[in-house]
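TA notes, week 10

Several of you asked for a full example with nothing omitted. So below is the full record: structure tokens for the whole chain, then the designed sequence directly under it. When grading your own attempts, check the secondary structure regions first.
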């Protein structure tokens, strides 16, 4: 008889197994679940060495899986740069940068991230913020600030000078250097690949590792125990950083790795490099499973590729569709070679034109007979007929429900102005489920600075406001409050949302037999929470807190002054 190291009793365990069973007790031996069932049945798994936790009727769920995130996320910005996340005016941006300079007297350049297009008006809505706002802060020190979504870089005049950027400076496909049409000077923003004209701040591997520990702490507090980490061959968390964290016994997340390809470099050569990484760095806690393709840009930058033109307010004329970043033949070759070599694909596609083109290419390769678990992510606009094709082609829809509402200080000023009435039907969710398409959920952190899954679950269920305090407004009490409601026909159930963060996420990264549900033989990744989110007012889901997070059979987070 196996006795457990840890036993949980008097719980309400939503197992998320195929029968959606609800149990009341579980036992863990080392890193695996050895029993799930009744309080009475668990007794034979308990001896004098078993630690027993009385859950006092609280809910247990599988550990959450964030299926698209960029570690170490905001922890890197918070540690080493100026953070503009959560600020709501140009004046706040300027004040924060000034304070940063004042507190870093020897700084040679100011790097930062987190500004939002939503606070700007007029021509700055389409082009991005002017350099003059930053020149008011400093003309002597270069200032380089990435938008919260990472797709636009805002510079002051000194940065433009230091990096020798001119109106005619060449940049790769999809990149754009914004110009002031009146003065013919640079506006102050670089979009998409034009941002590569600026040197990024260099972080050492040690700095990445220190920031990752802060990131990991935040993930545990939110109940996240597995992630799909998005990085590049030469940017983001390196495989070696993960290896060293694991060697030091500091890696407490299950990391599936996705490495992005560039459309202007040899696609086969890039995939071959990723193959070598997969072989060299392969453990239970870190493995490279998928290759990422960036098919288009973003709506707020007018760089997403649409089936119909942007509105005139985009400032690009009346016949502008955005840009698809890949040559179709090269993209087809890259997808085919990735799948043939055992990688799934993870495709960034925001616009309906981009998604249709990606689906056309996959259909042309005729991969649907094999279970590659290929994924398309973001999916802000999707043609109705293309939603059906996801099922036919076995494509997973990776969604970010955090964005599935009419966000204050954003939706009317950005999405609606650039898309018109199409914005009323953006971010389909229920439409995918109706067609039998598997959905996963993720934060795209640091694009979503607070990747709390309960925020996303509430938004997916209500298609309405959450975390009102961050916008400086009062919380909604009515699920049908029209001010922030985005197409309630796309609402889904709490269970569907939870599955998108658990078993579906596990399936997408080929780990459904290891994690994603609470079943005997699986790793003991689970959380205890303080609300039964299946049986409360949906507008209160956001208030749910994690009491305890268990990873690999070990408690990695406990909330203070609670039952545990």
């Amino acid at each position: 008889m196996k006795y457990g190291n840890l036993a949980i009793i008097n719980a309400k365990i939503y197992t998320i197994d195929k029968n959606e069973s609800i149990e009341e007790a579980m036992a863990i031996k080392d890193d695996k679940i050895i029993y799930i069932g009744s309080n009475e049945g668990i007794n034979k798994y308990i001896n004098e060495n078993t630690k027993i936790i009385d859950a006092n009727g609280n809910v247990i769920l599988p550990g959450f899986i964030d299926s698209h995130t960029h570690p170490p996320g905001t922890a890197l910005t918070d540690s080493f740069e100026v953070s503009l996340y959560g600020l709501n005016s140009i004046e706040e941006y300027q004040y924060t940068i000034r304070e940063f300079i004042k507190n870093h007297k020897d700084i040679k350049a100011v790097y930062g991230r987190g500004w939002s297009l939503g606070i700007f008006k007029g021509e700055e809505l389409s082009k991005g913020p002017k350099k003059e706002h930053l020149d008011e802060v400093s003309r002597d020190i270069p200032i380089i600030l990435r938008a919260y979504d990472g797709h636009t870089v805002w510079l002051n005049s000194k940065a433009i000078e230091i990096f020798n950027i001119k109106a005619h400076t060449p940049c790769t496909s999809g990149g754009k250097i914004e110009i002031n049409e009146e003065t013919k000077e640079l506006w102050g923003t670089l979009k998409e690949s034009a941002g590569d004209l600026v040197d990024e701040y260099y972080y050492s591997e040690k700095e990445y590792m220190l920031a990752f520990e802060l990131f990991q702490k935040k993930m545990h507090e939110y109940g996240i125990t597995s992630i799909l980490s998005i990085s590049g061959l030469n940017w983001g968390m390196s495989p070696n950083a993960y290896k060293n964290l694991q060697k030091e016994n500091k890696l407490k997340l299950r990391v599936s790795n996705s490495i992005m390809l560039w459309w202007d470099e040899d696609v086969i050569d890039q995939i071959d490099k990723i193959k070598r990484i997969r072989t060299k760095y392969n453990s239970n806690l870190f493995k490279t499973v998928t290759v990422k393709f960036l098919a288009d840009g973003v709506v707020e930058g007018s760089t997403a590729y649409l089936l119909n033109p942007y509105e005139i307010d985009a400032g690009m004329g009346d016949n502008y569709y955005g840009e698809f970043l890949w040559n179709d033949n090269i993209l087809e070759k890259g997808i085919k070679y990735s799948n043939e070599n055992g990688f799934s694909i993870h495709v960034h596609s925001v616009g309906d034109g981009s998604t249709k083109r990606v689906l056309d290419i996959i259909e042309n390769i005729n991969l649907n007979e094999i279970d590659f678990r290929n994924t398309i992510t973001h999916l802000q606009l999707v043609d109705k007929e293309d939603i059906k094709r996801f099922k036919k082609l076995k494509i997973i829809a990776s969604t970010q429900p955090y964005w599935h509402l009419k966000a204050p200080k954003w939706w009317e000023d950005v999405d609606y102005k650039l898309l018109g009435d199409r914005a009323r039907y953006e971010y389909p969710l229920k439409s995918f489920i109706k067609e039998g398409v598997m959905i996963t959920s993720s934060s795209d952190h640091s694009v979503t600075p607070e990747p709390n899954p309960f925020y996303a679950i509430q938004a997916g269920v209500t298609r309405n406001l959450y975390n009102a305090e961050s916008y400086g407004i009062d919380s909604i009490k009515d699920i049908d409050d029209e001010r922030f409601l985005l197409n309630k026909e796309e609402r889904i159930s709490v269970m569907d949302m939870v599955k998108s963060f658990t078993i579906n996420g596990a399936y997408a990264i080929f780990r459904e037999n290891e994690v994603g549900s609470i079943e005997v033989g699986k790793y003991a990744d689970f959380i205890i929470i303080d609300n039964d989110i299946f049986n409360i007012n949906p507008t209160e889901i956001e208030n749910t807190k994690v009491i305890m997070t268990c990873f690999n059979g070990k408690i990695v987070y406990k909330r203070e002054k609670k039952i545990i």
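The mean pLDDT is 95. Use that as a sanity check on your answer.
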